[in-house]
Amino acid sequence: MSDKPSVLFVCVHNAGRSQMAAGWLRHLAGDTVEVRSAGSAPADTINPAAVQAMREVGIDITDQGPKLLEYVTAESSDVIVTMGCGDACPVFPGKRYEDWKLDDPAGQGVEVVRGIRDEIRTRVQALLTDLIPVA
């Protein structure tokens, strides 16, 4: 059992928003937080505009692939951040949930995805500050 908090980011395709959020949290938190992401209906690949937007800020998310949201992953996470997965997201009593209303980067150009990326960074920074307060 780990003493690190675990955060699960969930969106429909696990190809854009949740992958960018996971990339930001890994980048900003290092090994202080266990980072997970999944989708209710995963795509085959990560959105290329999301990959490019994250690469522009020095974060490579190409080593991750869209994953199906599994009950055990959600159940074992401390914080579950949803991004438009609707009723497909399981609810467990005692878990911390956040529902982030974010535009879907699917089918958008990198110009639009940059704005989504930056909004996600702001939210991830606030979440991290709450999870790991600065001493």
What's the short version?
The chain contains 4 helices and 4 strands. By secondary structure, it is α/β, with parallel strands linked by helices.
Task: Explain this structure.
Helix 2 packs across helix 4. Helix content is 36%, strand content 15%. A 4-stranded parallel beta sheet has the order 2-1-3-4, covered by helices on one side. Strand 1, helix 1 and strand 2 form a beta-alpha-beta unit. It is of the alpha/beta class and 135 residues long. The model has no long low-confidence stretch (mean pLDDT 91).
Annotate the secondary structure layout.
Blueprint: E1 6-11, H1 17-29, E2 34-39, H2 48-55, H3 71-75, E3 79-82, E4 96-99, H4 110-131
Parallel strand pairs: 1-2, 1-3, 3-4
Helix pairs in contact: 1-4, 2-4
Primary descriptors:
alpha/beta; 36% helix; 4 strands; 4 helices; 135 residues; four-stranded parallel sheet; single chain
Count of discrete alpha- or pi-helical segments spanning 4 or more residues: 4
Q: Order the strands across the largest sheet as they lie in space.
A: 2-1-3-4
Low-confidence stretches: none
Determine the oligomeric state from the structure.
single chain
Q: What's the β-strand tally?
A: 4
